[in-house]
Amino acid sequence: MKKMRIRLVGLNARFTHSCLALFCVRNELEQNCPSAEIEIYQGTINDGYFQTLLRLTAGAPDGLFFSAAIWNSELVVRLIGDCLRVLPGVAVVVGGPQAGEVGRLLPPGGITVVRGEIEAIGTDFYADLPAGRLQPHYAGSFLRLPVKRLDFPYRDEDFRLHLRHRHIYYESSRGCPFACSYCLSAAEKGLWHKDLEQAFGELGEILRHRPQVVRFVDRTFNDIPDRALAIWRFLAAQGGDTLFHFEIAPDRFSEEMLAFLAQVPQGRFQFEIGIQSTNSETLAAIDRRIDPQLAHDPIRRLATAANIHLHVDLILGLPHETRATFLRSFAAVFAMGAHYIQMGLLKILPDTPIQRSAEAMGYLHCSEPPYSVLANRWLGREDLASLYWFGECVERFHNNRYFVSLWRYLRAGGEDMARFFQGLLALCQQQRFFELAATQELMCRLLCRYLTGRDDEELTRDLLRYDWLRCGHRFLPPCLALEEGREQPAATRDRLYRTMPVAVEGVYDLGGRNHFFRKASCLRLSAAAMQVLGHAGPDGKSALCFTARQEDSLFRFNQVIIL
Questions:
Q1: Angle at CA of residue 412, ends 407 and 418, nearest 5°
Q2: Which of 344, 375, 346, 343 is nearest to 362 (CA)?
Q3: Helices (H), 270-368
Q4: 203-243 per-position pLDDT tens digit
Q5: What's the pLDDT tens digit per position in 251-307?
Q6: Which residues touch 89 (CB under 8 Å, ≥6 apart)?
Q7: Rounded to whole angstroms, how far apart are CA atoms 327 and 325?
Q8: Residues 330, 292: Cα–Cα separation, whole Å
Q9: For residue 434, is pLDDT > 90?
Q10: DSSP string, 15-73
Q11: What is the mean pLDDT of residues 18-24?
């Protein structure tokens, strides 16, 4: 009997990503169709189309299995159509969250759609596949299986071949404790967790290969706080430089967890925290049962510890969310101090509860992936567009390391940040900012203009200077030039070179003194700025030296020394 050759296809958003589903499908196929020859192919949505088509059809495989998601489904539809033209007899199977939509967009009879997890697909699929009699649809539910088990998806050779220089995706659980109406997980309730000893063993196998990033795909990693803490403790004890990414519920932190997390080494953990909204009516409408008040303190404490990168999500376009309530949600989240605030558009995904009630709630949305919202009963088209650009303004100015000291100062002073960014957005639109490259210098120039006339204008400009030099620049741009009458950076450096000792312990020695001052940038800030930054010296005349050496911190700022 001829050996069936099957090519598994994952089209990722970027090269560093990987497709966990391919490895799970491979293992199931090898177990249930041992005579099949399985090949894994991972490309990206940015690869040349014709090159991708040639790679998929090379050698005329008997079967092509595609993983379809929102970001690649349009490409998958196009590729399948052309693959069927090139290889008329090829068996095409599509799985993943967008499999149903892909099936609807292609002529009937050409492909097989698999809904649900591959581990739950019945034995009839594996009998039909080699016999050449695949049906149009197969389905299964992992959470409804009487006996549940997830085996380790990877092998040693995967790390050398398919996962080299890529993020490693790992699941320690399936299901979600929430049933948010906009999410595909709302269709199926339930949770299942791997035994901790199994998880420890599998994570140990992954860490043997010293990956750069391991991303946990658990939809709510800390749904059982004690279990999450046990895994965190295991990972922290392994050492190494791997970054671990987790999706976290903001209201499920115990005091023991927070105490442990405060001790985690810099840059080892990264949290994506789904808040979505702080409006109680909105949270009830989407069936997201969290208490926003309980979220504030843990995130603020984690941000203060400054050792874990915090990415917080808000969603624009949710039911009952007006312009006013969305801006209140933003202000509440900004006050928590997270490093990254993502304000994504709601997507009306097929087969979700919100999609079934979209018409009743007045939703207007794009008909193609990613199905972004355009308007609803609570936000007209113009209001939603305005808030979208508000989010883009925050994305450009806040979600980087450029102005950290400025945001910290404004947060501590109780600034109305929703009003602040609305004013900044108006200036950006007047200057056609969103049509230009968002360089740090351009954003500095706009911030300087926006902050002109404030009572604290001199202080805020000094904070911008401090942040500019901490980012590795050696000279101030024109918009941050010091005012006439203040000691200029070159003069500050010359004065320090003349007056500082020939050696300063931990800073430079006699042999390295000239090199230190040649590479350093020096700046004398106002007393008020030094006080805000926590750098005020005993005589009020201290200057700052920004060295060429980077700190061991989340943002990798250049080291600052007070002289």
A1: 60
A2: 375
A3: 280-285, 292-305, 323-336, 353-356
A4: 999 999 999 999 999 999 999 999 999 999 999 999 999 99
A5: 899 999 999 999 999 989 999 999 999 999 999 999 988 887 888 999 999 999 999
A6: none
A7: 5
A8: 12
A9: yes
A10: TT---HHHHHHHHHHHHH-TT-EEEEEEEETTS-HHHHHHHHHTT--SEEEEE--TTTH
A11: 98
Give the lowest-confidence range in 23-32, 160-169, 176-185.
176-185
Residue 103 · residue 94 · CB < 8 Å: yes
Reported as type and span, the H/E element at residue 395 is helix 381-398
C-beta of residue 366 within 8 angstroms of C-beta of residue 372: yes
Average per-residue pLDDT for the chain = 95
Nearest partner of 235 among 295, 297, 173, 170, judged by Cα? 170
The answer to whether residues 393 and 431 touch, using CB atoms and an 8 Å cutoff, is no
Phi first, then psi: what are they for 389, rounded to 5°?
-70, -30
pLDDT in tens, 527-549: 999 999 998 765 556 899 999 89
Work out the number of other CB atoms within 10 angstroms of the CB of residue 29: 22
3-state secondary structure of 324: helix
Residue 232 CB-half CA count within 13 A: 27
Cα 128 from Cα 136, distance rounded (Å)? 11
Residues with Cβ < 8 Å from 112, sequence gap 6 or more? 91, 92, 93, 94, 134, 135, 136, 137, 138
CA gap 441, 478 in Å, rounded: 9
Burial of 539 (0-12, 13-18, 19+ CB in 10 A): exposed
| Residue 39: predicted pLDDT | 98
